């Protein structure tokens, strides 16, 4: 080994690309900061993690990273070759970052930026902890788990066929602002609220259903909609085209951050993909979820997440091919009209995650107190 663990006390938090990777790391960082532990983030430049971490005033080191494409086209082949070179460059950059910052432990949430960091950490003798949020382990985490000292999971261990005594179920770290908000009474409102959270990058399919169903939904509901950056301007135009009586009842966002706790408190129903992080956040507030799994997700992990909740009657699940505008509107309005059922589903979702560990227990894993 090229460095001694005991001489290096800094914790590196790595993962990126989506909110599902970034926001659990933020939750862990909040706890580390409260305990006055020294940590850094490692991510890629011009990314979601860079924007979030920089806004919070924490240190971020950037490296190059490459994404592996599983589909077979000439363009994807060329992209994979280029990105393989980026991974190699990122590996050597990671060695420099780990040495320069005296990192002793790497906590990885996955995402393609994490792979070179994990293998550089292994070479340098760092302690490696991998956290998997989904019911099916992603490619980066599968590779990282082979060299990790501890593998932490959100779902039950029965979901992971290659599990061994290094695996432990701990749930998903949730940011402090959401944990605090979940203990407060929801503000009063005049109409039911539909919260649409398809993910930090948005969802073309869910956006399409919202686009075509807005006039009908806005007759009786308030709609808060995370559109993603790509389609935000289009939905601003859609809002402006609504009649005056409906316009104030629709709020599109390219990205929701500070307002999210309020909207989780107020929501009657959450429409989302099956991102494990969004599910964990909604569970904290005991909110009913209408899940539309991303059909192209790697290893179909979103469907597997949704399937486990569906089996526990802890969410409403619809696959894209089952939906039309008519079916979507009918489902939403029927559910909203039955608040008792929504509360029952939300309570089951909260119960599903109830027995899992706290962030403080995850910190113990990072400290090596097994």
What descriptors fit this protein?
370 residues; alpha/beta; Rossmann fold; 2 domains; 7-stranded parallel sheet; globular; disordered N terminus
Q: Please, could you describe this protein's structure?
A:
Helix content is 45%, strand content 15%. With 370 residues, it is an alpha/beta fold. The protein folds into two domains: 5-172 and 355-367, Glycogen Phosphorylase B (Rossmann fold, 3-Layer(aba) Sandwich); 179-352, Glycogen Phosphorylase B (Rossmann fold), CATH 3.40.50. The protein has a seven-stranded parallel sheet, sandwiched between helices. It has a six-stranded parallel sheet with strand order 10-9-8-11-12-13, with helices on both faces. Strand 1, helix 1 (19-34) and strand 2 (39-43) form a beta-alpha-beta unit. Helix 4 (114-123) packs parallel to helix 5 (139-145) and helix 11 packs across helix 14 (339-352).
User: How many distinct domains?
Assistant: 2
**What is the CATH class of the largest domain?**
Alpha Beta
Return the CATH architecture of the largest domain.
Answer: 3-Layer(aba) Sandwich
Q: Kindly report the name of the CATH homologous superfamily of the largest domain.
A: Glycogen Phosphorylase B
Shape: globular
Strand order of the largest sheet: 3-2-1-4-5-6-7
Q: Could you tell me the mean pLDDT?
A: 89
Q: What does the oligomeric state look like here? A: single chain
Number of strands: 13
């Amino acid at each position: 080994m090229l460095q001694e663990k005991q001489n290096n006390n800094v914790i590196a938090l790595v993962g990126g690309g989506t909110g599902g990777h970034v926001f659990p790391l933020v939750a862990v960082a909040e706890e580390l900061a409260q305990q006055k532990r020294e940590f850094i983030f490692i991510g890629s430049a011009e990314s979601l993690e860079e924007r979030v971490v920089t806004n919070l005033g924490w240190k971020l080191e950037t490296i190059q990273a490459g994404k592996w494409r599983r589909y077979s086209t000439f363009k994807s082949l060329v992209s994979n070759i280029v990105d393989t070179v980026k991974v190699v460059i990122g590996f050597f950059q990671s060695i420099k970052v780990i040495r320069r910052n005296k990192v002793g432990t790497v906590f990885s949430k996955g995402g393609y930026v994490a792979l070179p960091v994990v293998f550089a950490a292994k070479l340098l003798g760092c302690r490696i902890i991998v956290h998997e949020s989904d019911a099916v382990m992603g490619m980066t985490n599968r590779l990282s788990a082979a060299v990790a000292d501890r593998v932490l999971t959100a779902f039950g261990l029965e979901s992971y066929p290659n599990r061994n005594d290094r695996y432990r179920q701990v749930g998903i770290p949730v940011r402090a602002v959401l944990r605090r908000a979940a203990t407060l009474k929801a503000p009063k409102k005049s109409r039911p609220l539909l919260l649409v959270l398809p993910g930090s990058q948005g969802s073309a399919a869910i956006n399409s259903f919202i686009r075509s169903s807005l006039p009908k939904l806005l007759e009786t509901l308030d709609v808060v909609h995370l559109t993603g950056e790509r389609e935000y301007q289009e939905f601003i135009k859609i809002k402006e085209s609504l009649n005056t009586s409906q316009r104030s009842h629709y709020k599109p966002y390219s990205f929701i951050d500070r307002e999210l706790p309020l909207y989780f408190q107020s929501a009657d129903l959450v429409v989302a993909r099956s991102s494990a992080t969004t599910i964990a956040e909604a569970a904290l507030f005991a909110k009913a979820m209408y899940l539309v799994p991303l059909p192209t997700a790697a290893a179909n992990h979103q469907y597997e997440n949704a399937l486990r909740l569906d089996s526990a009657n802890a969410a409403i699940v619809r696959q894209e091919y089952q939906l039309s505008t008519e079916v979507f509107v009918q489902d939403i309005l029927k559910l909203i009209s039955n608040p008792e059922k929504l509360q029952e589903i939300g309570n089951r979702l909260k119960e599903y995650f109830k027995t899992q560990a706290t962030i403080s227990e995850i910190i113990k894993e990072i400290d090596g107190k097994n």
